Amino acid sequence: MLFHKTELLGAMLIDLELRGDARGVFARSFCSREFSEQGLTSSFVQQNMSVSADKGTLRGMHRQIAPHSEVKLIRCLRGAICDVIVDVRPDSPTYLKWQAFELTEENHRELYVPEGFLHGFQTLTDNVEVSYLVSAFYAPDAEYGARHDDQAFGIDWPAPVTVMSDKDKSWPDFSV
């Protein structure tokens, strides 16, 4: 795996090192030793997946608050997404900054999202499947979110939103 720092402190974009032959390709998508050597969380307790039928579907912006904060490792298995993270750690030098990443079934990239970040994505194709590892168990009482169009961030999404949950539409204005 090739680890690339992003503009946001602690977040990493990861390229898989594909090995191919007549059968197809093989790659490691996670190695606890390599993650630890990079100073990244290497213990995950849950793997989640989402499937979205329509291009333009938006999921987010979500996180869990302490003491249930979680690290996420996100990968798009089918289709393509614009994955967006926002640093909402008040003491961070990249506080309230956001960055977008294109994750696709073709580029095999992964996004490592540290604790204290909002996360969401928009589908760029129909029939998208996303898988992600999380370092903490889901705790409904610790769930927190912000609107995808919250002016505190000014996220520039790549396309109009076609589908979004009522819950994601109703998040309040951002607050720490």
Characterize the overall form.
globular
| Strand arrangement in the largest pleated sheet | 1-2-10-7-12-5
The main β sheet shows up as: 6 strands, antiparallel
DSSP helix fraction: under 10%
CATH superfamily: Jelly Rolls
Describe the structure.
With 176 residues, this protein is mainly beta. It has a single domain, classed as Jelly Rolls (Sandwich). It contains two helices and 13 strands. A six-stranded antiparallel β-sheet has the order 1-2-10-7-12-5, with no helix packed on it. A five-stranded antiparallel β-sheet has the order 9-8-11-6-13, with no helix packed on it. A two-stranded antiparallel sheet has the order 3-4. Strand 1 and strand 2 form a beta hairpin. The longest helix is centred in the N-terminal third of the chain and has 6 residues. The chain starts with a strand and ends in a 7-residue tail after the last helix.
Task: Fill in the keyword field for this structure.
single chain, mainly beta, 176 residues, 2 helices, Jelly Rolls, 6% helix, six-stranded antiparallel sheet
Q: What is the fold's blueprint, element by element?
A:
Layout: E1 2-5, E2 12-15, E3 19-21, E4 24-26, H1 32-37, E5 46-52, E6 58-64, E7 72-78, E8 80-87, E9 98-104, E10 110-113, E11 117-123, E12 128-134, E13 143-145, H2 166-169
Antiparallel strand pairs: 1-2, 2-10, 3-4, 5-12, 6-11, 6-13, 7-10, 7-12, 8-9, 8-11
Outline:
The chain has 176 residues and is mainly beta.
